[in-house]
Amino acid sequence: MAGILSLVWFVGSVLITPFLMILLCIVFLASIGKSLGVRRLYVKLLLIIFEFGRANIETAQKGSNAEDTSEEDEEHIEEISPLNSNATNDIKHLKTPNGLKKPNNGYVPNGNSVISRDDKLILVPEPPFTMHKTDETTDLSEAKDKCKDYDLCNIFDYLKAGMESIIEDQVTSRFEAEELKNWNLLIRTNRRYEFISWKLTVMWVCGFFVRYFFLFPLRVTICFFGICWLVITTGLLGGLPDCPPKRWINTKSYLTAFRIMSRSLSAEIIIHNKEHRPARGSVCVANHTTPCDVLILSTDNCYSLIGQSHGGFLGILQRALARASPHIWFERSEVRDRHAVANKLKEHVSNPKNPPILIFPEGTCINNTSVMQFKKGSFEVGSVIYPVAIKYDPRFGDAFWNSSKYSMMQYLYMMMTSWAIVCDVWYLPPMQQNEGESAIDFANRVKSVIAKQGGLVDLVWDGQLKRTKPKKEWRERQQEEFSKRLKVE
Amino acid sequence: MGNRSSLLLREEEIAQIQEETGFTPNQIERLYSRFTSLDRGDCGTLSRDDFLRIPELAINPLGERIVNSFFQDEGLNDRVNFRQFMHVLAHFRPIKKNKENKLNSREEKLRFAFKMYDLDNDDMISKDELLAILHMMVGANISEEQLTSIAERTILEADEDGDQMISFEEFCKALQRTDVAQKMSIRFLN
């Protein structure tokens, strides 16, 4: 026992110096915002390893599944053409509320689909209002003709749509981690992890040691440094009166703190279109995957944050931030009071010296495959909106925070033991509410821009469905739609 | 980590379900993964609430009826296990020529739809049963009298023996020209 202890002691004392050197080096580079390209190399190396792993799994599976595939193939050649159904289709929800025609109304078949769904058979909460309003004048007579007698087969489309939604739906899957096509050598992502081949097992074990015994302690220490930096600098700055030098120092220390913290996730952030970086005194809206979105965006620009006051770890950060620069934290009791929040927002934006305020209008974390309904609140302020799209590369580690399953600390632990966080950030050209455009339409317009840039599915559903049940009115809207097509005398 | 339950599906179970429903092992595993993610309580069975938590299904005018179709077999049981789940879904597999279609023949599909109407399971669709469906479909948008007249007319058109009800045979006849194979089939991928 004593022998082992002294060995550990010896190894520890030998390794501690290079470890500290690396640590200091990383923290220093992070604080001046420079990179030696180590992370880029690391990511490239990981890709090569994953590719090797994929090839390995495929050859392993080919051996075992050779018999079943031959017989099944014919089944999938025989398909039903979706076009045939147009004429008799009863459920037509081609357009989203903003009237924009989207060929893939929410539905993008990915490699993990079980079924292929017809767009027209997917029910959405708000069937097209605008379509009917505009068509009414011109096609009134035509619309009358389209009404049909009730037919016993009218239920078929609803029946099929219902069954399809049981097999695969647009919403519930957005609140769970995205399934990966290929295993990334993390146990948590593989649905059926088991012994595949000895090569893979060796690779996984090596990866495990690197992640848990090298990266993890390093990252925790870096993160600790970052937080200390933030707390100390904001504490010092909090004592100064508001003046231009204070704002300048604050910006610098803010960026430094978040750059250091981003290294603790080995975040490789690729920022596009820097010319559209959100300006002071404006609103910046982004899609929301994880609380780390803030960290990712803050490595390049100083933001004011808005949100509910938290306790614990997040609370420490929130209080630290609030000391040095204007942020809007409200209590749980105030959340319902939309007016108070809106007023605070307006007040903040009206001062051109304030940093841009960062808002996630979805109001909840989505698994980064789609963008859900934007709450209109932030679009009612009337300021310039800078949309930002964030897309994570799920192969290196799933950034999505499934808050109903993991606590913040569990989530951070998982993030720090993942390979890396690799993401693209696109600054998009500023947008402004058009004359006569409602806040909801404007929100939808911004949302579609973000979805398009980030390669995300543009959904009209409310992200709050994660916790709440769908509204009754949505079903009533469906019933209304059907009644419109039914001929009555 | 939460997906570990998918391991609980044993080879024999897959083989059995494949035999009974015609789904491929791959489809069965995928649907099982879906089944477990719908199963919030992690108890291996689904309740009505588990189904209705799917927003698209909850806003479907026939949502509750569709969920009910999963709970018909076992009478009093108010939970569905994976096998029952698969049996219901199997009705929606596409019809294949030159192959045995057990649960997904044209007749089985029609039978399934018929049961959606036939609430009391007496193999007859009465006017009240038809009205109940119509109510679900239109909500409060069409008046009671108008709905009654629609129901009466629909029955009149389909009814051949003059008993003011639609039997399964009459139901099939009325839907003779409907492309049931297409409308009642889901395109499963592999």
DSSP summary, beta strand count of chain A: 10
Residue stretches of chain A low in confidence (pLDDT < 50, at least 5 long) are 67-110, 129-143
Query: Largest sheet of chain A, described in full?
Result: 7 strands, mixed
Ends of chain A: how far apart? 93 Å
* Euclidean distance between termini CA atoms of chain B: 25 Å
Protein name (chain A): Phospholipid/glycerol acyltransferase domain-containing protein
Family (chain A): Belongs to the 1-acyl-sn-glycerol-3-phosphate acyltransferase family.
GO cellular component, one term (chain A): membrane
GO biological process, one term (chain A): triglyceride biosynthetic process
Describe this structure in words.
Chain B: One of its GO terms (molecular function) is calcium ion binding. Chain B: This is EF-hand domain-containing protein. The complex is a heterodimer of chains A (489) and B (190). Chain A has 489 residues and is α/β, with parallel strands linked by helices. Chain A folds into two domains: 96 residues, no CATH class; 271 residues, no CATH class. Helices cover 47% and strands 9% of the residues of chain A. In chain A, the strands form two sheets. Chain A has a seven-stranded mixed β-sheet with strand order 2-9-8-3-6-4-5, sandwiched between helices. In chain A, strands 7-10 form a two-stranded parallel sheet. In chain A, β4, α8 and β5 form a beta-alpha-beta unit. In chain A, α1 packs across α6. Chain A is flat, with a radius of gyration of 26 Å. Chain A starts with a helix and ends with a helix. Chain B is mainly alpha-helical and 190 residues long. Chain B folds into two domains: 81 residues, EF-hand (Recoverin, domain 1), CATH 1.10.238; 78 residues, EF-hand (Recoverin, domain 1, Orthogonal Bundle), CATH 1.10.238.10. In chain B, the strands form two sheets. In chain B, strands 1-2 form a two-stranded antiparallel ribbon. A two-stranded antiparallel ribbon of chain B has the order 3-4. At the A-B interface, β1, α4 and α12 of A face α2, α4, α7, α8 and α9 of B.
